[in-house]
Amino acid sequence: MLERACNSRRCERINERNRKLIQRQSGRLSVPDVRYTQHAAGFLSYRKGACIDQTDDSGCTTLYQAVSEWLIRPSVQKRLFVEFLLSRGANPNFKNNSGESPLTKSFPTFQATRYKDHLLEIWRCLLNFGARAKIKDDSDRSPLHILVNLSCKLSPKTVDEGIVLFHEHGCAINCRDADGNTPLHLWARLAVKSQNLEKVGNKIIDRGGTVNARNDSGETPLHLAQFWEPVDLLLKQGAQPNAQDLSGETPLHKFVDKETLITDKVKVGRWKKCLTSGMDPWKKNDSGVCPFQDLLEKGFLQSSLRLLKAVFEHYVDEETIESARCFKDSEGNSLLHLACITQADAICEYLLQRGFSVNNQNIRLQTPLSLVCSRVGTLPMKNIQNTILLLQKHHADPKIPDDKGNTCQVLLNGHEDLKRLLRIDIEKEPILPIMKWRKESEKHKDALCDISCGQKCQRVESYHHHKHYIGKGSFSLVFPALDERDGREVALKRLEKARLEDASFRREIECLMKLNDCPAVVNYICSFSSSDFQYIVVELMEGTLNEYLDTEHEGVNAFRICSDIYSGIEYLHKNEVIHRDLKPQNILYKTTPSVAMKIADFGLSKILQTTQHFGSSDTVMHSMVGTKCWKAPELFTNDSQSKYSKESDIFSCGLLFHYSLAKGKHPFHDPKESPAQIGSPNTTENIKDNIENKRFFCPSLSAEAVHILTRMLSLKPDERPTASSLKTFPFFWDNAKKMDFLKKVGNEDEFTKPRSTLTRPLTDVERQLEKQMKNALPWTSNSSINDIFSEFTSDPRYRDQYEPNSAVELVRLIRNVHEHPANLSRKAKSLLDKHVFLEQFPHLVTDVFNSAQQWKERTNLKSFYE
User: Fold this and answer.
1) Which end of the chain is more exposed for a tag (fewer CB within 10 A), N or C?
2) Which residues form the KEN domain (predicted)?
3) How far apart are CA 537 and CA 495, in angstroms?
4) Is residue 203 marked as binding?
5) Partner residues linked to 493 by β-bridges
6) Is 238 left (phi over 0), alpha (psi -120 to 50) or beta?
7) What is the per-residue pLDDT across 216-266, written as a single tens digit (0 to 9) for each?
8) pLDDT for the residue numbered 708
9) Nearest 5°: phi and psi at 296?
């Protein structure tokens, strides 16, 4: 209501102003002066009560002519006259016989005048008096469509402000014309490149123009682009580079048909830009034709070659390269087939140099050579001769028959000169790779190189494996292999069916599938069989833990190895799988993308069964499996009830921890005897003696390592930690967490008060800690610790509150100096930053950890024990 009242008042003001102006100029305002002819007469009749929207023969009202006159010869009087008509009720949305409103008619009218900047003023006037910005002409074009079409003839200001004006007055920025085109479609399709072309596109997009809108033919604006500037802008704004229209054509298909975009002079840099934006030159339309084929068929051979160079030498994206190698048209022809029959010798040679298979066959089993031979009579003889020689030089086989059994010799019957070329002893080029290969392995790269070139290898299913194995089991061999589908490196495990128990094979597959999501377990890919063998395909690893420790490797410490092994065993046990044969030969490593250890060989593994009434069993009968020197002691007994269990896996895992930390030394292996002798009848007693006396633990092991190994290698299975609890041991803590633990214990009430002020008896935790650390006291005997203590307790009153012979007081001191370091010198603070307490008291953390077990449910300590 308020808006209507405002409009009414505005109209009254304009009417009054116009009446006064007309009265002042009544002596000068005559029909010839304004040249209104019939419309002027209509206006005069209106003053006597005639209809203001009376039309002429073309269906135009007085308002049409008034707007045209204002636009052609602008003046204040003509503007006022238009405003007067509108204020008197002239319909701004009236349509003439051509379906034009005064607003849309202003666009073609302006082309006859040089006063183009008045368009904005006219549009604003019409819109302010109710002209609908979303009105369309008979071609279903909105003012925005018309504006964009004529943008190259208008000033940048008029176009820029016009887009905003129409959009703000209700013209949808993505409205469609009769063909489904949005204004952005029409902008991209502009055939004349103006200075403000990109600015117009940006303005439409900024106002909400959809870069991936489809017209009735399924085309996006990118399909319609006529110049590289709109192409680059649309791609930058998120246009889909490979959107397909209703005939399956991508923008790149369309570009080949536009000489403003693609000719035979397109440079490598432009092709690289197209590839970087995601455009796929191998994407086929509904007829099975890709943009590269279009280039060849149009004879753009130089541009085609530069595109290939951009793909293989500049862009170097493996997926795009592999798409080129795998491309097949509707007849199964590769890019090499297509290049051969389009007489593109330079392209043929380039593809052959890039490893394209010279003997690849299409649907009719034709190689590039046999396809060329079949075209005798349709291709120029000289071109056929050159292509035959080129293919022969690259090891083309003329004896490969097509689907009708015809070899090249047969196809060339009657052409003896060409047949003679097949028999020429021509110097051959070195053999290039014929198979995709995603290079990762360093150790097996020579064998994999042989495979990629088709040398010394055999094919099973889609896998090509080397003739020489890299691993051997009782009745299995492991070969390095390549998957021909994607070039992935794999390990192919071949098991002899005659010696293989079906249950064992099924068990291994079942375990691998169950554990396939764990990064610390060798990744299972698939399995299949032939008449004589069963095959298991897994990821290719570099070698065993033995081999890794025998070789110098930078950047990976033994702690990382133990961490990977722990992650694997935790995942196994979480999924109710026991390995039963953990040993260095079954821990494999890889170096890409980073060094990692993984658990392998599940031939002896067992999934623990779950029953409805008794739950899951944590043990499995049979102690004869596994390798003696890596088995738990309970498995050596003559007791028929001896069973493999999660606890026996933990024991073997502990042996592997020691083996890794001690750089290849077995914890119970006397250097004077063979490791295999550990399996003697006295093994249990030997292990017990070794554990109790830590006799054969490597002296270089840290206190935290000895702490966890002592538990993992316990003679009693029920005293060994579970796999999930291993991570709570200080061995897996960094120095920051160790110090945090000591500070948290020091914050417990029992540790906060000086011993000299205690009236209560010591707790069990305090007594046990004092007993465990009695050999490390007094702690002031260490010069670095004494310096920190002296600075911190410079006031004698504070010094008397500590007893240097007390381990509890040491923990309290650690807590206090870290909580209140202000009184310490820079040197003392530096010692704290270097964790001097951990360095000088290596057993402190494990002693406190063991002693404080009774407090593990306390709020501040709970997280360290779970």
Assistant:
1) N
2) 735-866
3) 11
4) no
5) 478, 536
6) left
7) 999 999 999 999 999 999 999 999 999 999 999 999 999 998 999 999 999
8) 95
9) -65, -45
